Amino acid sequence: MCETGQTPFTPWRYGLTIDRDLLAAVAVTRLGLGARSGEIAAARGDPRGWALAQIREEGADQPTPAGAGAPRRFGELRQLQIDRRDARLSGQSRDDAVKTAARILRQEVGADFLDRLRLAAGTEAGFRERWALFWANHFTVSAAKAAVAGLVGPFERDAIRPHVFGRFEDMLVASSQHPAMLIYLDQARSIGPDSMASRFQARNGKTVGLNENLAREIMELHTVGLAASYSQSDVTEFARAMTGWSIGAFNDPQGRAGEFMFRPRAHEPGARTVMGRRYDQDGIGQARAVLRDLAANPNTARHLATKIARHFVSDDPPSSLVARLEQSWRESDGRLDKVASALINAPETWDPTPAKFKTPYEFLVSSWRAAGTVPDDVRPLAQTLTAMGQKPLGAPSPKGWAETTGDWCAPDAIIKRMDWSEAFAAGVIGDRDPAQLAADALGARLTPLAAKTIARAETRAEGLSILLMSPEFQRR
User: How do beta strands 260-262 and 277-279 pair?
Assistant: First the structure.
């Protein structure tokens, strides 16, 4: 299941025609999130057109209901922290009000995740949702940091989904200025060493100082990547340019609590030099200019082209595909709709060999889609995903969730998938024919051996669980 074996024959390399039924199956199971009943048949007439039609100016779909925005969530989180502190200082256990506030906040965070799961399980625009999830993982903010937990949903709704088919620079700025990112990477309290705020702190015996986390991750992960060979000095200079990028305090007198704001008193004065370019003192505009140049840097095009190709096609993506995506990126000045179109139109994308192994999240979503169901209770699902190694909204680092087969294909992880598949199949199969579900879920990717094994299963539930655990279904 986990190994691909010897290098397969790949018809696209030789200019040969691939059967339209197989192209439709590749479109829906690789570019999309897995097939719902009738979806592969609907894509058969124009598999590329099926995906291209999902690119739209307004961005990705939004989970419904919309949920609370970042400022309100920030206020809830901060009030909960204050209540807990007061209870601790008074030597009392948390009272009912504090417990209730914590429970409501957990419910809201769980609702964010469940809404996102339900969208993925039921959407008719599987490519559009996969594209949005790719960018949400690229610009990771994680609930593993408690202060960020309630902000992950608003971050994805506000900073990612509206921009996934727009200019990369716009999404870079939106993500870098969002309260979730500013708190997650400790930017909100970063203060220039020679700023007015720093001098004030020194007089009062306090020190906060410069924090380089966000500047470093923007360069290493979000834009140019380590191959750009920037220096530690570049990171420090960028971090100094970003000082003052913060959020409104909980008790902000102008009602800006939890909103992005620039604090001139915290900003490091003077010009900065980042990757050989000088940026004059321009307040909030100084870091904004650095972001603009990072977005336009050729290393960013190459870094992101490689990452997109790795996510959609192969752990070791063809260099020709990376080159196509990089060219589209540079020619369009980072227009993500153009890059998405280049991905869909690239012949390498349609190599029928299923080279990607599904993450736990992808596995569960594709299982719901195959069964024609949507999740309705986040608690057992959260437990399942956590057991499989992909805790909801809880990526272990700013790198986001891993993309390669080796990260998800350990024997223990496969056993957990098998246990879940058996229980899931028993609960949803009813009187439906698993052989038909298999044909609908995999189309021309369903091998004769898998079809025969599913048809010969002793029970319908066993047949469906065999489908879900088959190599054809586990890969995309």
Answer: unpaired
Q: Which tokens is 369 given?
A: 């889609």
Q: Which residue blocks in 123-190 are alpha helix, DSSP H? A: 126-138, 152-155, 168-177, 179-184
Q: What is the pLDDT of residue 93?
A: 56
Confidence grade of residue 11 (pLDDT, cut at 50, 70, 90): very low
Q: Cα separation of 476 and 469, whole Å?
A: 13
User: Following CA atoms 174, 324, 330, 139 in sequence, which dihedral angle do they give, to the nearest 10 degrees?
Assistant: 20
DSSP 67-93: ---HHHHHHHHHHHHHHHHHHHHTT--
Mean pLDDT of 464-474: 98
Contacts 24+ apart (CB under 8 A), 12-19: 12/347, 12/348, 12/350, 12/351, 13/351, 18/350, 18/352, 19/444
Which residues, at least 6 apart from 106, have a Cβ–Cβ distance to it below 8 Å?
A: none
CA gap 431, 203 in Å, rounded: 75
Q: Distance (Å, rounded) from C-alpha 422 to C-alpha 414?
A: 12
pLDDT of residue 447: 97
